[in-house]
Write a structure and sequence with these properties.
The complex is a heterodimer of chains A (388) and B (219). Chain A has 388 residues and is mainly alpha-helical. Chain A has 2 domains: 17-145, Fumarate Reductase Iron-sulfur Protein, Chain B, domain 2, CATH 1.10.1060; 151-320, no CATH class. Chain A has 19 helices and 6 strands. Chain A has helices at 17-24, 28-42, 45-53, 65-69, 78-91, 98-110, 117-121, 128-141, 147-159, 167-184, 206-210, 213-224, 242-246, 249-265, 277-290, 303-312, 332-335, 342-347, 361-365, and strands at residues 199-202, 229-230, 270-273, 300-301, 327-329, 353-355. In chain A, helix 15 links the parallel strand 3 (270-273) and strand 4. The longest helix of chain A has 18 residues, at 167-184. Chain A is globular, with a radius of gyration of 22 Å. Chain B is mainly α and 219 residues long. In chain B, 34% of the residues are buried. Classes of the chains: A mainly alpha (388), B mainly alpha (219). At the A-B interface, helix 3, helix 5 and helix 7 of A face helix 2, helix 3, helix 5, helix 6 and helix 8 of B.
Chain lengths: 388, 219
């Protein structure tokens, strides 16, 4: 038993219109109604078993990068966050004040990114991320979501992509990248809506919006590998899913249905997706289940797995390896979501320091914590010693 | 005192045993039924192969990453649980009672060893208690219930130890020992101690998710 932890630090709570406006419209009985509805209709054996058997041993703490990066502040430990959210809701049968709900929303949206690492640290295997997700679901149904991430969810609902990219802008971006790439590789094509191709390549909306050259780069790889591939022109091309993170499962379902049906309409054999981890989680693991598919109705291959396949089958040869050391930050959704951590390490030459330090990009740094910031999500973890 | 003794080893023992066994069966059924109706995903994704893989890996001390990060806690927890289960089952005096009342007998632990294991359980309970106070992440989530359960688990061992060594009023101590043991048994199905029955299923489910769906380890 070594080390003492500083007392829980006071928080700087910034205003967030997404939370403030919604909370102003709520009272205890409205909150209670929704909490009870979710608990009765959407939770069952898992929540009951997790809540009733957790022995409060605190052993999940070391799994959490928030806990480690806040010098062991117990409010950030996985079980500490469950205590502040779902236990609180259960204890009061959902009858909590809007102010209490604000705290829960901040914990659920900005202090846990559902990475599921704590599930690997819990001796019983309790899935804490699931309980935080239930809290997010409740917050969503009450309209209490940080504004920025909610805006991306609204975009999903209105456009079927995350970044308000219009249909003509999307097609135009693809043609533009094809044009650019042909300067370098004259025979390169970005085939649109090709019927019966082997592969449908799908991306996240920030690619056409902010990093359009990534589409160019992917097109180079797919062309050089001599693959029969296509990209869809219709909505459904975006595989990302911020609705999954806000707790808006209805929109999540619509998104995933659109995505898979697009692939089925094009009669492709499989979907290859870009690097986005959270999108992979939604397509591979979560969205399909919400729709009642046991696994993906069209096989989904994540970029890392796909590049691995290209490299090991010799379809793609690497001219020159990157010589400097690379740090591989723990990408939760493809490591704990698909076991892909060893591939980059094997393939990158001098590599590799695998750092189990999450950079909670997708749903927190970029989205939820833009405004609703109660902590500094991207703080670095420090090495920790043995503890009893 | 004899009447009280007769009651605790007689009717109350039957009641405690029945509550324990039927309680476990009832609670298992409750969880199965709830899973079937509300969480069919749990049953759908449960994979015996990966469930057992996970349970097996977590049954080996100092094998999972987190058990190596907390070596003292790991050692204490394993010793505690093993002693907790084996000492009462294989204690000579307990077997003799069963032999006397029901004519059942089985091999037992030598008394000095049983005595040592009892001390291990009590010592582990003290360790858990100290940990609840000293470690901030544990203190933060500790409630009165956790203390009550810790006392409930320690009590039969403390009273058993005192009775065996004839410290304090012997007869009262024996009665207290039996009473607390029965209280402990009856509490198992309905408190956090139900992890005795549910932990394998919780681990089995997360092991199935990690193994069969996500192709990742969970230890």
């Amino acid at each position: 038993m070594t080390g003492t932890t500083p007392p829980t630090a006071p928080r700087k709570i910034q205003p967030d219109p997404g939370l403030d406006d919604a909370l102003a419209r709520l009272d205890e009985s409205k909150i209670q109604k929704v909490v009870q509805r979710v608990l009765a209709n959407e939770t069952g054996a898992r929540l009951k078993a997790y809540v009733e058997t957790c022995v409060r041993c605190g052993l999940c703490s070391d799994g959490c990068h928030y806990y480690l990066s806040h010098d062991g502040d117990p409010q950030y430990s996985p079980v500490g966050k469950v205590k502040q959210t779902i236990w609180e809701l259960l204890k009061h049968k959902g009858r909590v004040s809007p102010e209490a709900l604000r705290r829960m929303a901040l914990v659920a949206y900005t202090e846990c990114n559902l990475c599921r690492r704590c599930a690997m640290y819990c001796p019983m295997g309790i899935d804490t991320a699931y309980m935080i997700q239930v809290t997010r679901r409740i917050c969503h149904l009450l309209g209490v979501t940080p504004r920025y991430i909610q805006d991306t969810a609204h975009s999903h609902a209105a456009t079927m992509n995350q970044m308000w990219v219009k249909e003509d802008e999307w097609i135009d971006s693809l043609l533009w990248q094809e044009d650019e790439a042909r300067e370098e590789i004259p025979h390169l094509r970005i085939p649109l809506d090709k019927d019966g191709a082997d592969i449908m390549y799908s991306v996240i909306a920030p690619e056409p919006k902010f990093q359009t050259q990534l589409i160019y780069l992917a097109a180079v790889i797919l062309n050089e590998s001599g693959l029969n591939w296509t990209m869809p022109s219709a909505p459904g091309w975006d595989n990302s899913d911020m609705a999954m993170f806000t707790g808006d499962f209805e929109i999540m379902g619509r998104l995933k249905r659109k995505h898979f049906e697009l692939a089925q309409r094009l009669k492709v054999k499989r979907i290859v997706m870009g690097e986005c981890g959270h999108a992979f989680r939604s397509v591979y693991d979560v969205g399909n289940r919400w729709l009642g598919w046991r696994s993906e109705p069209v096989p989904v291959v994540h970029a890392i797995e796909f590049y691995w396949e290209l490299l090991t089958t010799g379809r793609l040869k690497v001219a020159r390896k990157y010589e400097k050391k690379v740090t591989f930050h723990d990408p939760c959704n493809i490591v704990r979501g698909r076991g892909l951590h060893e591939r980059p390490a094997k393939w990158s030459g001098p590599f590799v320091r695998i750092s189990w330090r999450c950079i909670p990009t997708g749903n927190i740094t970029i989205a939820a914590a833009r405004e609703a910031e109660s902590s500094t999500p991207a703080r670095r973890t420090k090495p920790s010693g043995w503890k009893a | 005192m004899h009447a009280v003794y007769g009651f605790v080893v007689g009717p109350l023992a039957w009641i405690a045993g029945a509550v324990f066994v039927l309680g476990l069966v009832f609670r298992l059924w409750v969880f199965y039924d709830l899973a079937r109706r509300k969480d069919p995903m749990v049953l759908e994704y449960m994979s015996p192969k990966y469930a057992l893989r996970s349970i097996l890996h977590w049954s080996i001390p100092f094998h999972p990453v987190n058990s190596r990060r907390h070596p003292v806690m790991t050692a204490v927890t394993f010793l505690f649980h093993l002693s907790l289960v084996f000492t009462p089952l294989f204690l000579g005096a307990h077997m003799m009672l069963m032999d006397y009342y029901h004519g059942l007998s089985w091999p037992t632990l030598p008394d000095p060893l049983a005595d040592l294991l009892t001390v291990v359980v009590i010592g582990a309970c003290v360790f858990f208690g100290v940990r609840r106070v000293v470690r901030p992440e544990v203190r933060y989530v500790t409630t009165a219930k956790d203390w009550a359960i810790l006392v409930l688990v320690a009590l039969p061992f403390v009273t058993g130890f005192l009775a065996y060594h004839q410290i304090g009023p012997y007869q009262a101590m024996v009665v207290l020992h039996i009473l607390s043991g029965e209280g402990w048994l009856m509490a198992i199905p309905f408190t956090r101690l139900s992890h005795m029955m549910l932990a394998p299923f919780i681990r089995g489910y997360i092991g199935s998710e990690f193994g069969a769906v996500r192709h990742a380890r969970d230890w």
